[in-house]
Amino acid sequence: xxxxxxxxxxxxxxATAVAGMALIAVPGVAQASTGQAISNVAATRTAPGQPKFGxxxxxxxxxxxxxxxxxxxxxxxxxGIFDKRTLAALKTFQKVVGLKVTGVVDVAxxxxxxxxxxxxxTQAPATTAAPTTTAAPTTTIPxxxxxxxxxxxxxxxNRGDSVRLVQNALKSAGMTVRGGIDGMFxxxxxxxxxxxxxxxxxxxxxLLDVATASALGLIAPAPVAVPVAAPVAAPVAAPAPANxxxxxxxxxNRGDSVRLVQNALxxxxxxxxxGADGIFGGATTVAxxxxxxxxxxxxxxxxxxxxxxxxxxxxxxxxxxxxxxxQGPCSFENTWHAPxxxxxxxxxxxxxxxxxxxxxxxxDGTITKTYSTATDRLAGNGVRLTTADGTYFFYxxxxxxxEGITVGTKVKAGQVIGYNGKTGGTxxxxxxxxxxxxxxxxxxxxxxxxxxxxxxxxTPLPIP
Length: 464
Known about the structure:
The chain is of the alpha+beta class. It has helices spanning about 10-20, 35-45, 60-70, 85-95, 105-115, 160-170, 185-200, 210-215, 255-265, 280-295, 305-310, 445-450; strands at about 330, 350-355, 360, 365-370, 380-385, 390-400, 410, 415-420, 430-435. Strands 1, 2, 3, 4, 5, 6, 7, 8 and 9 form a 9-stranded antiparallel β-sheet that branches. The model is unreliable at about 1-15, about 20-40, about 120-145 and about 225-240 (pLDDT under 50).
């Protein structure tokens, strides 16, 4: 139920944009009568302000996001590192749209990608430079170059050089990286991050958040609004690391995981008859029902993912969505990496629902790709919804795409984008739903949809 990658639509749209661009004037180069000299220079020279192979930073992120925005797959996502994967994706883009294949972000390529040179590349005249006599005192800390930024931090499921940077930083910090320095952000790297966070007194979530990345020296620390000469106050004790459950206890269970839930209920102001005795019986069930009622959650008495997150005993998912993607009634279970035909692995979650049930946009974004039974035998009818940070959601097996939904359509969370069906490689009506953080590899989406589970909601959502 994974889908083929096709650039058919992108080729048509971008071929039009490239038409007539054979001759591109480059400042400071005389134009030959045949136009060939200008073409050659434009195709080999990096445009002003654009990144070159091996460079890192926000200007690399802009190019990577532009490549993905045009429907091209970039393994690892927008890492901010102009590596071999970025070079290969750039060459593929140039080939498909009819540009000279150089792997260089030249003037023509930058124009088609619609990436402008950063404003910071414009330098002030030399005469406006501050005199050396006004230089900062010797106590000024020299500038440090950091390999990542808050916008390019990898997430679970990513692969590539940015993940290796994280793994090497963990190793340098004295941590043993489970699985080694393999460039894959999986369970091993997550567990090592949790161990590092515990050692540093940081919230233990297994995510490479800003605080953890800063502690690892991967991004610049947040500026401190204290004068250099001012005395440094004693550090404030960090809050105790959060203990998150990886397996949710059910009625009849006993032990520390149940006691953790009971203590969380008591901390939330809910009475647990019998106290935190570590026994999941009738008293705990009633207490969970009371908590669910107070939070407006479905009152089941079970510790589901939504209830666990609200209680603070379940870690929020790496990617959070605003709306459950399918109109109820429906059901789903974790089938991540279940084997499929042809040696494939399942890369999404299957939400079983009646044919014709409404399919919703899970977040605000843009439709960047559409699929049809005529062009994709596995995906059938479907769409790709991309958010502002490059994260995209793949929907497959629609009965039909909603009217007015096409490539380039801006949608709001909760907007109807299609109707549940069984097109493509399936005989059972369901939605195949994938999550690709920042345009990278797919990650297990089960906890992401479970965090907003609305399979019991059968009434259509109001128009956003």
